[in-house]
Design brief:
Structural class: alpha+beta
Strand order of the largest sheet: 1-2-3-4-5-6-7
Number of strands: 14
Radius of gyration: 17 Å
Largest sheet: 7 strands, mixed
Number of helices: 6
Order of helices and strands: EEHEEEEEEHEHEHEEEEHH
Length: 232
């Protein structure tokens, strides 16, 4: 007889407490950007990804209010409405359009961290612009599309990131941990096995130069610990 294909499902709404194994796993967020969705905003989407050996291998992100559907498969490219995606050529912070998010954690430490990060981006790096949208998967697709140059956040989940990771890597961009660069500068290649999909944090960008600065800024203001703390 035929052996059925075995897989797991990890989803925000239904099976969020299942640990991620090496088995092929669908990782799904039915509505990423719930607040924007409720308020009628454009920055919401459906995100469907699959990971194998804990590494994202394919993804679909549907942004219905933008009429954009993103698709990607490892080794086969990523696309928006059928058009091939390519990250921007940006490598300089002062030319970068960057997205950061305000966490659901509204503790003093969390607010101070993101405020200090945005201040440094604007005042010290003099970035081209800072944006704050409502859906992590959409922001990652925007990096893949070249509409944003970098996006980083602490407090996001595997279902927010899985599909977007495929889009960015297939478009020539970098996805890294928030506290270390998962990229070999000398070999000029990503190290996808170094990124933990369950880490609840990520920094992505069009180039390793931008991502390196995003990581440094996050570390400087203790971003991860500030969001992870439960104080109010």
């Amino acid at each position: 007889g035929t052996t059925p294909f075995a897989y797991e499902i990890v989803s925000e709404e239904t099976r969020h407490d299942i640990p991620l194994h090496d088995l092929a796993t669908w990782i799904v967020d039915p509505i990423d950007g719930t607040t924007a969705f409720v308020h009628g905003g454009f920055d919401c989407c459906v995100s469907i990804g699959m990971a194998l050996n804990r590494i994202p291998i394919l993804g679909v992100v549907d942004c219905p209010r933008l009429n954009e559907i993103y698709t990607g498969i490892t080794g086969q490219g990523s696309f928006c409405n059928g058009h091939h995606l390519q990250v921007s050529p940006c490598t300089s912070m002062n030319r970068a359009l960057i997205s950061t998010h305000t966490s659901y954690n509204r503790s003093h430490e969390a607010i101070e961290a993101i405020t200090n990060i945005n201040r440094k981006l604007a005042r010290d790096y003099k970035v081209h612009g800072i944006r704050s949208y409502g859906a992590a998967a959409m922001d990652m697709c925007s990096v893949a599309k070249g509409r944003l140059d970098m996006y980083f956040e602490v407090g996001i989940q595997a279902w927010d990131m899985c599909a977007g990771i495929v889009m960015i890597r297939e478009a020539g961009g970098i996805v890294s941990s928030i506290d270390k660069l998962d990229y070999d500068v000398e070999k000029k290649e990503s190290q996808p096995e170094g990124f933990d999909l369950m880490s609840q944090a990520m920094c992505c960008g069009s180039s390793w130069q931008l991502v390196k600065e995003g990581i440094a800024t996050s570390v400087e203001f203790n971003y991860r610990n500030a969001i992870d703390r439960k104080s109010v």
